[in-house]
Automatic annotation (TrEMBL):
InterPro entries, A to Z: AB_hydrolase_1, AB_hydrolase_fold, AB_hydrolase_sf
Protein name, UniProt field: Alpha/beta fold hydrolase
Native source organism of the sequence: Pseudochrobactrum kiredjianiae
UniProt keyword annotations, A-Z: Hydrolase
Phylogenetic placement of the source organism: Bacteria, Pseudomonadati, Pseudomonadota, Alphaproteobacteria, Hyphomicrobiales
Pfam family, one: Abhydrolase_1
Length: 286
């Protein structure tokens, strides 16, 4: 897994991140979603590393990266804090400007990173997401039914108890779908109580400080300054919830937002790695 990539834990000002990086060419930072770790990219990253220097961290709170001490410290679990980690990480590796792609919860960190640090981001790919504020303001019965976990995970204590009672049944996943090493890394994460709390902190911050950050940016007319490309899964529920993802994202961008679907379930890096790598390469290389 990740042939010719380097694996290390990097100490940064606010967090220690477990990171894999390798390849040649312009830098590309890949941010995973919930409940995955950076190993979700194990089939995509080697393909992209032929054209880019690919960096895959475990986000703060996830995997084997450090965890906020208090799972209800919304600032410590915020996308803004995680964005600062990403800037520090890329500078540590020698990159001031870089391409960026984020999936699921990682897409929210990617969005905040591009909003807060526009001069550092060259291009932004957002996978399976709409802005947090847009999801919450458009919330209806269908959203609350399909994405009920957003609100459950934000509660105190009960989510941890439910998940840790039987993490495998709760989250699903299999060796066949994920590959042996990726599955084992995922398994170690979901069975660790501190990691589960760290992952839940991402949702708790989402309904608190992250929403407020989005609201403030919209109120002052702040927009993404880099080219933006959306990729969404045909076999996930975003197309059912939203008629036009590009239309939702366009007001958040100074550039014309592009996008396309991919024949995949939600975990597209594992389901359709070659198609995803091709789409990212096409967008990032323009």
């Amino acid at each position: 897994m990740f042939d010719n990539f380097k694996l290390e834990v990097i100490e940064l000002p606010e967090a220690n991140l477990r990171v894999r990086h390798g390849g040649y060419g312009p830098p590309l930072l890949l941010l995973h979603g919930h409940p995955r770790t950076h190993t979700t990219w194990h089939l995509v990253a080697p393909l992209l590393s032929q054209h880019f220097t690919v960096v895959c961290p475990d986000l703060r709170g996830f995997g084997q990266s450090s965890k906020p001490i208090d799972p209800y410290d919304y600032e410590a679990s915020s996308k803004r804090a995680k964005a600062r980690d990403c800037i520090a990480l890329m500078r540590y590796l020698g990159f001031d400007r870089f391409n960026l792609a984020g999936h699921d919860r990682g897409s929210y960190t990617a969005f905040r990173l591009a909003m807060d640090h526009p001069i550092n981001i060259m291009k932004l790919a957002l996978l399976d997401c709409v802005p947090i504020i847009e999801a919450l303001e458009r919330c209806r019965v269908q959203f609350a039914t399909k994405w009920w976990h957003w609100f459950f995970y934000a509660q105190h204590n009960k989510p941890e108890q439910a998940i840790l009672a039987d993490p495998i049944s709760w989250y699903g996943g299999s060796i066949e779908a994920m590959g042996v090493e990726n599955y084992m890394d995922f398994l170690n994460a979901i069975k660790d109580s501190e990691t589960v709390k760290g992952m839940l902190g991402d949702y708790r911050a989402g309904l608190q400080v992250d929403y407020k950050h989005d609201l403030h940016d919209r109120s002052i007319g702040k927009k993404l300054q880099c080219p933006v490309h959306l990729i969404w899964s045909e076999r996930d529920d975003l197309p059912e919830l939203y008629d036009n993802l590009i239309q939702i994202w366009q007001p958040w961008s100074e550039h014309i937002v592009t996008g396309s679907s991919i024949d995949s379930g939600h975990h597209m890096a594992e389901d359709s790695p070659m198609e995803l790598a091709e789409q990212l390469l096409t967008f990032m290389s323009k």
